[in-house]
């Protein structure tokens, strides 16, 4: 999966004193797009280094994100930067589908996207309205007026592998649900609501999207997924009663039972969804 970058690891400890260096990786986002290599030369890094943006922006415009191995990543908060030759702005989905880079680079990118959106949306105190400032001791935004503290928002969500005998339920999202055409098969997924356990989320989402009841809900594994600020919890479960699908056409464009040997996997092995599908197809314990 996306986070499986051993022997490297993502060190997300907050270091307020960390200063940008010439070889620091810089993430700059603009209108939902990221500054990324567009030229074909593989020798260029996927995301620009600080020395490629020399003279613009100012050092104060950088905020430390995290470290992967020995490589440090920074977010550039300046509204505009001088775009290096061979670079341009592309949407997240296009970067995932068209770029060649190490898995650790993409893991860092997704996590940076998560933090960038949080910083952008957490600029003012929700209690008194004053401008927030980065906390010194931990990754948080603190109000200098009333002391209110905001931490990075992480949305709990589930992935549900619904099983009946030797078949698993596969779906495709409706185009209007995602804002683009969904081409990959996936599993049932959804966000946890207030006052709800993860297991209850599984049962509710399955019923809402395909009209099925489930039993034997069992936890498999979790995954951070920064593109939606998620922490995903994967569960397998069995159908309880009828297997007739009643699909929510606002959420899904397809929902069908697929025999084990006919499961079509996604083109990369980044996602928890894909790993769960692959595990079922291989006949492993689910």
Can you put this structure into words, describing what you see?
With 286 residues, this protein is of the alpha+beta class. Helices cover 19% and strands 30% of the residues. The protein contains 5 helices and 16 strands. Strands 11, 12, 13, 14, 15 and 16 form a 6-stranded mixed beta sheet that branches. A hairpin with a 6-residue loop joins strand 9 and strand 10 (149-150). The protein is globular.
Give me the Rg, rounded: 21 Å
Overall mean confidence score, pLDDT: 91
Strand content: 25-35%
Q: Secondary-structure element sequence?
A: EEEEEEEHHEEEEEHEHEEEH
Backbone structural class = alpha+beta
- Characterize the biggest β-sheet: 6 strands, mixed
How far apart the termini lie comes to 17 Å
- Total of DSSP H or I helical runs spanning 4+ residues: 5
Cα shape:
globular
The number of E-state strands comes to 16
Ranges where pLDDT stays below 50 over 5 or more residues in a row are 177-181
User: Which bin fits the share of residues in helices?
Assistant: 10-25%
């Amino acid at each position: 999966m996306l986070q499986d970058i051993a022997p490297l690891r993502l060190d997300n400890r907050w270091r307020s004193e960390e200063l940008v260096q010439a070889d620091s990786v810089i993430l700059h986002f603009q209108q939902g797009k990221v500054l990324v290599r567009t030229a074909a030369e593989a020798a260029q890094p996927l995301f620009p280094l600080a020395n490629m943006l020399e003279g613009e922006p100012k050092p104060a415009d950088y905020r430390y994100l995290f470290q992967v191995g020995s490589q440090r990543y920074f977010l550039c908060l300046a509204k505009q930067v001088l775009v290096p030759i061979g670079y341009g702005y592309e949407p997240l989905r296009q970067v995932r589908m068209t770029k060649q880079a190490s898995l650790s680079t993409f893991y860092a990118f997704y996590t940076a996207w998560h933090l960038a959106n949080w910083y952008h949306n957490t600029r003012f105190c929700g209690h008194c309205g004053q401008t927030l400032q980065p906390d010194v001791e931990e990754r948080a935004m603190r109000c200098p007026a009333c002391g209110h503290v905001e931490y990075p928002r992480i949305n709990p969500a589930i992935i549900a592998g619904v099983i009946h005998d030797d078949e698993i339920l596969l779906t495709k999202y409706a185009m209007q649900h995602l804002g683009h055409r969904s081409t990959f098969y996936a599993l049932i997924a959804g966000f946890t609501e207030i006052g709800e356990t993860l297991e209850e989320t599984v049962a509710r989402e399955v019923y809402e999207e395909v009209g099925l009841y489930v039993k034997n809900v069992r936890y498999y594994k979790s995954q951070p997924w920064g593109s939606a600020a998620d922490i995903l919890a994967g569960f397998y479960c069995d159908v309880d009663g009828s297997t007739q699908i009643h699909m929510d056409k606002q959420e899904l464009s397809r929902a069908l039972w697929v025999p084990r040997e006919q499961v079509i996997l996604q083109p990369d092995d980044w996602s928890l969804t894909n790993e769960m599908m692959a595990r079922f197809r291989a006949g492993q314990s689910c």
